[in-house]
Amino acid sequence: MRITDPTAIRALAHPLRLDLLELLATSSPATAAQCGRVLGVSQASCSFHLRQLAKYGFVEDAGPGRDRRERQWRLPDPRPTLRLSPGDDTVVRWQLERMVVDREMQAILEFVDRDDEQSAAWRRRAGLTTALALVSDEEAEQLKTQWLALLEPYLARSEADMDARRPGRRFARYFLAATPMPTETTDD
């Protein structure tokens, strides 16, 4: 999904809307009531925010639920990706990048603060990794491409096995950010 409208970015700025998108990415289709139970918010609030997301094409109507009274929602694309082209509005780019980084950093901090048995097991096996590498911009691009290729089989599996999740498998966030260190400047 390509976004050029700053208003569409603002439509994503509400934390509940991002939670709804994330929930629908892992368990779609779902009704507003189902989303509310999982997220711990009211059905009315979920319904309102789902309609707002639909207005900008982030979600779509998936037909009636089992009881035929409630509307189900789904993502138009099972692997939603928000894309900006290099020439797009810099304010839109900044808003989108800032939103993604804020969201991922919050999830990382919540994981670090979580103190339960499952988190401990994940921390031992997957955990957090940080590194300082000396690379060119071309090499950074190559690392990103390799990282995406490494994740691809797991992304495809999550789409195919949506209803057949095995015990011990959970959706896990992966976030890659290459942030170049500032260069030393001289006053010569």
TrEMBL record:
Lineage: Bacteria, Bacillati, Actinomycetota, Actinomycetes, Micromonosporales
Entry-linked SUPFAM superfamilies: Winged helix' DNA-binding domain (SSF46785)
Organism: Actinoplanes sichuanensis
InterPro entries per UniProt: ArsR-like_HTH, HTH_ArsR_DNA-bd_dom, WH-like_DNA-bd_sf, WH_DNA-bd_sf
CDD domains (UniProt xref): HTH_ARSR
Signal peptide as annotated in the record: none
HTH arsR-type domain ranges (all copies): 7-113
Protein name: Winged helix-turn-helix domain-containing protein
